[in-house]
């Protein structure tokens, strides 16, 4: 293979990978200089000129002529006078000899290795370009097409044919994909695995929801409305705290849109995830009340030391505050940064009731917590239910429930 064929084939391959001309020339020169160093120990006294467009390669070796008895005669950039006059009879000591080196002088095997090295360098460069491209897009939405569905992940390809990965844990539980589907997600992170970039996408990240709001709500995109915090139970519920520095703009109304037009587009993309948009405030009491929406809070007390908030609600508001599967209270706690405990507000005829926390010496703490998760915080609220009701609402066994009833009844019998 001569220089022209080698360079032209490499240039064509490089162009197919969208490698720019300066980078292409630099790679060619690096590889040829590596060949020179392998054969001649050093490339310091070599000039390498490449014209990738024409497929031309010129390699010149220059050495200083020294006396045959000189101590420097074995230096890589020196040549004896007797050797120099074989090249040109009238050369004299002290002059420089310029000698053209042909590609064939390196040997067929070296040329073949150079060709493989050039291709590998382009492939490595392509990986670096891909890594850098997506690293700059971390946190941004991308669209890609599903081409393979595996048990632990879905593989997608972007418009340039690059592979993207959407792991099971980054999918919304209700997501169901088919080959050829177009999928939106954010670039979650970019890893290197065995020198290959792995672009990991996510649809469960709060950042994905934030970017969807930016796409659907111009005021958010323009910075007129700020998203203070987002908490999610992907596919189930999300709470978004928003704030506007312009009194003329209602941040909640702008995010929801006329008849819910803006929020509906976001909800559809998130597989009907229920989204509560809340007006942020630094007034903690008001913020907690808004965070527990749609429940209406009667009163609350804050314990700064334990970072817990006790919230009191009317009996018919307790289940709303807790929400399906406890999602509402969990998200509210994460949104405000405090652990929220929900208690029923006792009416006059319920004053004789006893809080479940009073039975901590007789009933295990984990059982009391299980009861509180369902909004049961007093003895009578538990006794008003049947064993079957309580078994359905909790993960407690019937034998345990019967023992609880026995302990609670004894309190009132006394």
From TrEMBL:
SUPFAM superfamilies: Nucleic acid-binding proteins, Prokaryotic type KH domain (KH-domain type II), Rad51 N-terminal domain-like, Transcription factor NusA, N-terminal domain. PANTHER family: TRANSCRIPTION TERMINATION FACTOR NUSA, TRANSCRIPTION TERMINATION_ANTITERMINATION PROTEIN NUSA. HAMAP family: NusA_B (MF_00945_B). This is Transcription termination/antitermination protein NusA. It comes from Algoriphagus sediminis. Monomer. Binds directly to the core enzyme of the DNA-dependent RNA polymerase and to nascent RNA. Residues 139-204 form the S1 motif domain. InterPro entries: DNA_repair_Rad51/TF_NusA_a-hlx (IPR010995), KH_dom-like_a/b (IPR015946), KH_NusA_2nd (IPR058582), KH_sf_prok-type (IPR009019), NA-bd_OB-fold (IPR012340), NusA_N_sf (IPR036555), S1_domain (IPR003029), TF_NusA (IPR010213). The gene is nusA. Participates in both transcription termination and antitermination. It holds the Pfam family KH_NusA_2nd. Gene3D superfamilies: 3.30.300.20, Nucleic acid-binding proteins, NusA, N-terminal domain. Keywords: Cytoplasm, RNA-binding, Transcription, Transcription antitermination, Transcription regulation, Transcription termination. SMART domains: S1. It is found in: Cytoplasm. Its main location: cytoplasm. Belongs to the NusA family.
């Amino acid at each position: 293979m001569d220089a022209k064929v080698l360079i032209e084939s490499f240039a064509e391959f490089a162009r197919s990978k969208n490698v720019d001309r300066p980078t292409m020339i630099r790679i060619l020169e690096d590889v040829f200089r590596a060949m020179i160093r392998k054969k001649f120990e050093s490339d310091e006294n070599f000039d390498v000129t490449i014209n990738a467009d024409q497929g031309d390669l010129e390699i010149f070796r220059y050495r200083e002529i020294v006396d045959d008895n000189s101590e420097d005669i074995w230096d890589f950039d020196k040549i004896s006078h007797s050797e120099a006059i074989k090249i040109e009879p009238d050369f004299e000591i002290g002059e420089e000899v310029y000698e053209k080196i042909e590609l064939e002088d390196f040997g067929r095997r070296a040329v073949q290795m150079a060709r493989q090295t050039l291709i590998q360098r382009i492939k490595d460069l392509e990986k670096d370009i891909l890594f850098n491209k997506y690293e700059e897009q971390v946190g941004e939405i991308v669209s890609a097409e599903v081409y393979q569905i595996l048990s632990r992940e879905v593989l997608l390809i972007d418009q340039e044919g690059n592979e993207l990965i959407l792991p099971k844990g980054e999918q919304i539980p209700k997501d169901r994909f088919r080959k050829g589907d177009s999928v939106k997600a954010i670039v979650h992170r970019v890893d290197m695995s065995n020198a290959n970039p792995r672009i990991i996408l996510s649809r469960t990240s709060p950042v994905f929801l934030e970017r969807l709001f930016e796409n659907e709500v111009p005021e958010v995109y323009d910075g007129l409305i700020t998203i203070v915090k987002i908490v999610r139970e992907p596919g189930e519920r999300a709470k978004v705290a928003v704030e506007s520095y312009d009194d003329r703009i209602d941040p909640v109304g702008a995010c929801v849109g006329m008849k819910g037009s803006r929020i509906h587009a976001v909800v559809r993309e998130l597989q009907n995830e229920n989204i509560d948009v809340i007006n942020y405030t630094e007034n903690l009491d008001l913020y907690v009340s808004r965070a527990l929406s749609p429940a209406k809070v009667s009163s609350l007390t804050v314990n700064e030391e334990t970072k817990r908030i006790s919230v009191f609600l009317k009996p018919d508001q307790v289940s709303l505050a807790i929400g399906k599967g406890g999602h509402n209270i969990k998200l509210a706690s994460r949104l405000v940064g405090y652990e929220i405990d929900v208690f029923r507000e006792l009416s006059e005829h319920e004053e004789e009731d006893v809080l479940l926390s009073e039975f901590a010496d007789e009933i295990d703490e984990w059982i009391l917590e299980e009861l509180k998760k369902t909004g049961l915080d007093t003895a009578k609220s538990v006794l008003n239910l049947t064993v079957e009701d309580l078994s359905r609402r909790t993960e407690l066994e019937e034998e345990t429930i019967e023992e609880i009833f026995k302990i609670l009844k004894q309190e009132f019998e006394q």
